[in-house]
Design goal:
The complex is a heterodimer of chains A (about 400) and B (about 375).
Chain A: H1 2-17, H2 20-46, E1 52-57, H3 62-72, E2 79-81, H4 86-94, E3 100-104, H5 108-113, E4 118-125, H6 129-159, H7 166-175, E5 181-187, H8 195-211, H9 213-216, H10 218-225, H11 228-233, H12 238-268, H13 275-299, H14 303-320, H15 330-336, H16 340-352, H17 361-386
Parallel strand pairs in A: 1-2, 1-3
Antiparallel strand pairs in A: 3-4
Helix pairs in contact in A: 1-12, 2-8, 2-12, 6-7, 8-12, 8-14, 8-16, 12-13, 13-14, 13-16, 13-17, 16-17
Chain B: H1 2-16, H2 18-39, E1 46-51, H3 56-66, E2 70-73, H4 77-85, E3 91-95, E4 109-115, H5 122-147, H6 151-160, E5 166-173, H7 186-213, H8 216-222, H9 227-257, H10 264-288, H11 292-309, H12 321-327, H13 331-344, H14 353-379
Parallel strand pairs in B: 1-2, 1-3
Antiparallel strand pairs in B: 3-4
Helix pairs in contact in B: 1-9, 2-7, 2-9, 3-5, 5-6, 7-9, 7-10, 7-11, 7-13, 9-10, 9-14, 10-13, 10-14, 13-14
The chains are: A alpha/beta (about 400), B alpha/beta (about 375).
Chain lengths: ~400, ~375
């Protein structure tokens, strides 16, 4: 054990002197996540849904007033302006002053009262499709109320013996008040990291796969520099040499992730939740990264080839695993769960949503499985490459 | 002539590097595919649902919603809640088992709508669909009560009625930032073109550092080759790499995804000028750094950082106004503006002259600094 630590300490000293581990493990992820947060953070916040609607009442009668009241009553986060003229409204939508406007055409009330077809018009800005869809839904709900009354009377007329009386109309209007289907709203947690927390952890995990290269590829470098035979001639088991290289990677990776997440917490106000859970997740996550890059190092011909393939592995897994943007679309989402990135980020997300350590067990199990499989292959491969 | 030979040698070096095959040929196209799959196309909100019912009512509800949202089915409510929480769908609904029996129930039947705060506005869309069905049920119940008829009969009559009540029609106005004709991969392709021309161009700085460290560049000066030829050749090598990448992405995405690149002359002008900008930046880095590993790390940070700031990762049109101004300190933003003009507004090379001018200025400054630095380091003992 002591000999493992001695070799690892030597490797770590080398890495500190050569500043590339520092650049890749700390500076790169921190600078990039800082830029991403500055550039996208504001844009992502602005996405908060607060549509501006206008109402144009060309009808001026009862139905129009009822509809205007309903629109005015929908409250936050909508802002409503009533009493517009059609020209002002249309220009306002085109000029982005409104997301959508409702137009109640002249004669709407008269048409409805006489059982004829009537139509509301929603004019939406072409770049606010969702606001316009919601506006259309508001109008459609009002329309459904009207439909309930008209349909009640029509069904009555179709099946009943006589003509519709004013009493029937009043009864239909009253009964349309309580509909037999309701929608009950049930809140859900928002399991998404805040932008700053997401960018830092995404970049930290992305660069982790480059940082851990420095240890596991050490055997190849020793071979290239001619120091490997000397190391093997020393009175220590081959397993100890391999363990030392893996340990170097582990230390570099854990330090990088820990420093970055702590920095994100203090510099950018990121909240990752239960520190114990985060610590365990980091440790197992780094082990998975070491194991995967270890497999590449074990089977590469030389350090350069290992570096190239490890770079490709890091980039592909990082993209797919959601280091740059969340991968949520159907098939790709399932594919992304094959990457340790996705599990580390999911674990951090769950912890930040307030879950305890026990809730990230699936993430930990997945990462452990990846570590065991890749770690076994890597150890086997390295043992073989060291065999006399 | 010698400069050209040095340039071509640099391009050949890049093409012989096995990992370059991945980063230059495969990765950009794969990323454009991934981004197109994740973000491309019309963004219709996604609604997850769990439906136990198999009758006409639940089918009718889902059919009605189909027009407004993209429906994704989940087997259980727990799965649905997890999907909503993980933002795989914007919101979810649970259509209860007794939904079909709403007509015979004395209490209202509840459809459960599940959403985090960000998905809450979708409630209105779902409510409109539910209310629409409720109107038919309501009419059936009303007629059944007044006429003392069985609900099956009144429901059939109400369902077949032509009454539509108050319909809603929708129009769109305004000029879209992203016109509907924009293909699924168009936006991603243009931003990745600029990102990769610059990043893979910068990666070429490592090759220059190696040449200097192995003193290949210095030895070239020992042959009857002028300093100007060596400097132009080295800068030309980075230019060849960057422009090779650019033309490859344009042709590959054109063939594979039918990406629209607009006026060919305009597109070529952007690629050439942005290639010069990348070449200048790469040569400057290659002349400045001594350690190619460090330069590689800093190149990635610089390449990705400028790309993010310049709008290659998130459309610049959606930045805040202050960030939009800041973005234009990068050549990337100008190049993307030019491509947007060509592709989205059918501009020609004349329409993008201002952007081309700015890119030319960037190229001149970078190349000027780069040649000055390179001359200095190559003549230093």
């Amino acid at each position: 054990m002591k000999r493992v630590l001695t070799i690892a300490a030597k490797d770590l000293r080398l890495r500190i002197r050569d500043r590339s581990a520092f650049v890749i493990g700390l500076v790169a992820p921190l600078v990039l996540s800082f830029i991403f947060n500055a550039v996208f953070g504001s844009a992502l916040d602005d996405e908060a849904f607060a549509p501006k609607y206008g109402v144009v009442d060309e009808d001026g009668e009862e139905v129009a007033k009822a509809f205007t009241d309903i629109v005015e009553g929908i409250g936050e986060p909508f802002s409503i302006e009533t009493g517009l003229t059609r020209t002002v409204a249309e220009n306002g939508v085109a000029a982005d002053e409104f997301d959508s406007v409702f137009i109640i055409p002249e004669g709407t009330t008269a048409a409805i009262e006489s059982g004829k077809e009537a139509s509301l018009l929603v004019i939406g800005n072409v770049d606010s499709p969702f606001s316009t869809q919601v506006a259309t839904s508001i109008a459609q709900r009002f329309g459904a109320g009207v439909k309930a009354v008209q349909l009640s009377l029509a069904t009555l007329a179709a099946l009943g013996p006589g003509a519709i009386t004013p009493k029937d109309v009043v009864a239909a209007q009253q009964s349309a008040g309580d509909l037999p289907l309701t929608l009950r709203e049930q809140g859900a947690l928002d399991r998404q990291l805040e932008p700053a927390a997401y960018f830092v952890s995404g970049m930290a995990v992305f660069f982790l796969f480059f940082t851990v290269q420095f240890g596991v590829s050490g055997l190849l470098e020793e071979r290239q520099q001619g120091t490997l035979p000397r190391l093997l001639a020393a009175p220590l088991p081959r397993g100890a040499v391999i363990a030392a290289k893996g340990f170097t990677s582990l230390v570099l990776g854990v330090v990088s992730l820990a420093v970055l997440l702590v920095a994100a917490h203090f510099l950018m106000g990121a909240d990752y939740g239960d520190p114990l859970g985060v610590a365990v997740l980091i440790l197992i996550g780094v082990l998975a990264a070491v194991a995967i890059q270890g497999v590449v190092a074990a089977f590469a011909r030389n350090a350069e080839q290992a570096g190239n393939i490890q770079g490709i592995v890091a980039v592909v897994l990082g993209m797919l695993g959601g280091s740059f943007f969340p991968v949520t679309s159907g098939f790709l989402e399932k594919l992304s769960l094959a990457t340790p990135h996705a599990w580390i980020l999911r674990g951090l997300t769950d912890l930040s949503a307030g879950d305890q350590l026990s809730a990230v067990v699936p993430s930990l199990l997945a990462l452990t499985a990846i570590t065991l499989v890749a770690g076994t292959i890597a150890t086997f491969g390295m043992q073989r490459s060291l065999a006399p | 002539m010698k400069a050209l030979a040095i340039s071509l040698m640099n391009l050949k070096r890049m093409l012989r590097d096995r990992s370059a095959i991945f980063f230059v040929f495969i990765f950009p196209v794969a990323l454009i595919l991934l981004i197109g799959a994740q973000f491309g196309g019309a963004s219709v909100p996604q609604l997850g649902y769990v439906s136990a019912g198999t009758g006409p009512l639940s089918a009718g509800l889902l059919e009605r919603l189909q027009g407004d949202v993209e429906l994704v089915q989940y087997p259980t409510e727990a799965d649905l809640v997890t999907a909503v929480e993980r933002n795989m769908v914007n919101a979810g609904i649970v259509v209860p088992t007794d939904y079909e029996s709403a007509i015979d129930s004395s209490d209202p039947i509840e459809v459960v709508f599940i959403a985090p705060p960000s998905g809450a506005p979708l409630r209105l869309v779902v409510a409109a669909a539910v209310d629409d069905q409720a109107a038919i049920l309501e009419a059936a119940l009303f007629a059944a009560e007044r006429l003392d008829l069985p609900t099956e009969q009144t429901f059939a009559a109400a369902s077949s009625s032509e009454q539509v009540g108050l319909t809603v029609s929708t129009e769109s106005v305004g000029e879209s930032l992203f016109p509907a004709t924009l293909g699924r991969f168009d936006l991603g392709a243009s931003s990745q073109l600029i990102l990769f021309m610059f990043v893979n161009g910068l990666a070429g700085s490592a090759a220059l550092i190696q040449s200097r460290r192995l003193r290949v560049s210095q030895r070239m000066l020992g042959t009857p080759t002028s300093m100007t030829s060596v400097v132009i050749g080295e800068a030309g090598g980075r230019f060849a790499v960057s422009i090779f990448q650019g033309i490859y992405i344009v042709v590959a995405t054109l063939l594979m995804f039918q990406v629209n690149w607009g006026d060919p002359l305009g597109a070529l002008a952007v690629i050439v000028l942005f290639g010069l900008v990348s070449a200048g930046a790469a040569t400057l880095m290659g002349a400045t750094f001594r350690n190619d590993q460090q330069a590689g790390g800093i190149g990635v940070v610089l390449g990705l950082g400028l790309a993010a700031l310049g709008g290659c990762m998130f459309p610049i049109e959606l930045f805040s106004p202050a960030m939009q101004r800041l973005a234009h300190i990068t050549p990337h933003a100008w190049a993307l503006d030019a491509i947007a003009e060509l592709v989205r507004r059918d501009g020609t090379v004349v329409d993008i002259l201002p952007q081309l001018g700015v890119l030319a200025a960037f190229a001149a400054v970078f190349l000027g600094l780069a040649t000055w630095r390179l001359r200095a380091v190559l003549t230093k003992a």
